[in-house]
Amino acid sequence: MSEQQDTSGPIETDVVIIGAGPAGLFAVFELGLLDLKCHLIDILDRPGGQCTELYPEKPIYDIPALPIVTGQELVDRLMEQIAPFKPGFHFGEMANALQRQADGRWKLITDTGKEFLAPVIVIAAGGGSFVPKRPPIPGIEAYEGTSVFYAVRKMDQFRGRDILIAGGGDSALDWTLNLAPIAKSLTLVHHRDGFRAAQHSVNQMRELVDAGKVKFHVASVKALHGNNGQLEAVTLQGADKSEWRHDTNAFLPFFGLTMKLGPIAEFGLNLHENLIPVDTAKFETSTPGLFAIGDINTYAGKLKLILSAFHEAALVSQAAFRIARPNEKLRFQYTTSSSNLQKKLGVA
Amino acid sequence: MKIIATDRNGKTTEIEGNDGWTVMEALRDAGLPITAECGGACACATCHVYVEEGWLEKLPKQRDEEVDMLDMAVAVQDNSRLSCQIVCSDETDGIQVTLAPE
């Protein structure tokens, strides 16, 4: 956290950025050069957005002057580049509501109840918030939170239960290993007898299966049975299409994350196919003081490229300055020649 | 070259695929509701399709990366593929695919 915060009241800052992917991170740099302080909110537990969540190891070839860089390296470099501006990061939180205050500033409230007051909001939310994938099993919503869970928050909640885990990635395997000792029974199902999870986890799981402490089936969940949100059993279908009933009262599907627009859809913007229309001079939405950059915006000729987001961030900063510092003159300067900018970057 | 694509409501359309481009790109460019979140990097499993009978064996074998990534898809079947990993060619002209549920 960069600034002194009074935890009892809202955080007051110049700009709140929704999304800490490459667009949001570079916006901190451009805004920082103009002395605008930023706070970033992201549903993930670390910076980078898609770059770190989806393809940290994959190469990117179209970042200017970086012939090859992986998703993670790009994010690491951006974090290094913006470090002098000491942005506030608020991870594991989702921007939930946005209200215009009487003084013209925005009040943004996250899903944990944290409040921000700022004259400028920049939406850099990419494809939206990362949320767990929900398997297409009829009626699954009715069990969510009581018998169906997409994450483990308190392990004790699963003590003594007949647990069913579905999936073949690290989450599925890790929770199989962690919950097996406290479960009444634990069954893992996956559509194949192979796993993308770390090999040592797979080995440990197989040892538990051999010891009779965990059951594993090549199968998928076809139907849920229960009442009032209390799951009693599921129908499993094996590789040979045979089906059987399996008793369980806690089902944990782990199929990774996908992106959903989420509460941003309720911010009163005129969305076009889940994208936010902006002008191309300021990248401002139809609502003054509310900007959108990166994959989430749309305009004539839009290309969903990281480099487009960088350009958009630079232009947003100019417009944001005029809103946040109405009485100050905006002077355009180059980092190469301006000792003022170099001081801000900590190099002069 | 042609791709016969069925959406999640059962509506079938014939779309055009370009030689050397992927089926995902053709589906996306034709405006079918395929998420393809990662843009074709075999990193998200949101371009999951079912390949109809007769076509699966004509396709090159899945790379390990695709098999691994399908672990992150829901409702995987024996004929599941990631459409970003199917390249349009003479062999795949007329391929029939169905969008998997999301």
Question: Could you characterize what this model shows?
Answer:
The complex is a heterodimer of chains A (348) and B (102). With 348 residues, chain A is an alpha/beta fold. Chain A folds into 2 domains: 11-131 and 258-344, FAD/NAD(P)-binding domain; 134-255, FAD/NAD(P)-binding domain. Chain A is built from 7 helices and 21 strands. In chain A, the strands form 6 sheets. In chain A, strands 16-15-14-13-12-17 form a 6-stranded mixed β-sheet. The longest helix of chain A has 19 residues, at 306-324. The mean pLDDT of chain A is 95. With 102 residues, chain B is an alpha+beta fold. Chain B has one domain: Ubiquitin-like (UB roll), CATH 3.10.20.30. In chain B, 14% of the residues lie in helices and 22% in strands. Chain B is built from 2 helices and 5 strands; from the N terminus they run ββαβαββ. Chain B has helices spanning 23-29, 64-70, and strands at residues 2-6, 12-16, 48-51, 80-82, 95-99. In chain B, strands 2-1-5-3-4 form a 5-stranded mixed β-sheet. Chain B starts with a strand and ends with a strand.
Helix content of chain A: 10-25%
Briefly note the structural class of the backbone of chain B.
Answer: alpha+beta
CATH homolog superfamily of the largest domain in chain A: FAD/NAD(P)-binding domain
Uncertain stretches of 5 or more adjacent residues of chain B: none
Helix fraction of chain B by DSSP (H/I, runs of at least 4):
10-25%
Radius of gyration of chain B, taken over Cα atoms and rounded to an integer in Å: 12 Å
CATH class of the largest domain in chain A: Alpha Beta
User: Largest contact between protein chains?
Assistant: A-B, 25 and 22 residues
Strand content of chain B: 15-25%
Determine the strand fraction of chain A and express it as a percent band: 25-35%
CATH fold-level name of the largest domain in chain A = FAD/NAD(P)-binding domain
Helix-strand pattern of chain A: EEHEHEEHEEEEEEEHEHEEEEEEEEHH
CATH superfamily of chain B: Beta-grasp domain
Instruction: Tell me the number of strands of chain A.
Output: 21
Major sheet: arrangement of strands of chain A: 16-15-14-13-12-17
The total count of strands of chain B amounts to 5
CATH architecture term of the largest domain in chain A: 3-Layer(bba) Sandwich
Tally of DSSP helical segments of chain B:
2
Shape of chain A: elongated
